[in-house]
Amino acid sequence: MRLYLDSSVTNVYLFGAVKEPHRYPDVVRLFSAISANEVDGVVSVYTVQEICVYCYEFFPEESCAEIARLAIHKLMGTRLYLVPLLTREEKTGHARSFLIRDPSDQPHVILAYLHHCDAIVAYDEHFKDTSHLVPYLQPDAVLTRPRTR
Description:
By secondary structure, the chain is of the alpha/beta class. The protein is 50% helix and 12% strand.
C-alpha cells in the first residue's frame, strides 16, 4: 500500500509525544510499518514547508529554525519517498477535478493522485471532499486495514 502522508500526520510524528499524546501512538505505529517496509510512505516538498511553518508558529523565535532543521532531518531519516512540488501544468490541469474546502491542501491530493497513492493519511477531515479520487484515512484506520502488498 502506498500512502501519502499529510503534515497533520507528520507533525504528530515529530511533535505529538507532547503536543498530541492521544494521536501519537497510532502515528508511531504507522511510521513503524513504513520503516518495516509493510507500507510505502510518500511526502512532498509541501509537507517539508508546512513543518517549517509549524515550527516558526509554535516555537520560540530563537530556536524555531534549529527545531525545524532537526524535525526535517528526523522525517527524512525515515524510509519515505519525497515528491516535488506540482508543476504549473499539473496544478492547472487538475485543479478543477480536486475541489477541497481548504485550497492549501489541494496540492497534496493532486500529488497523491499523480504518484499513485492508495490513500491520503491525515487528520484533516476535509480530505473527505476528494475521497472519491484518493481515499482518505486516519492513521488508526491504516493499521486496521488488510495489507495488500
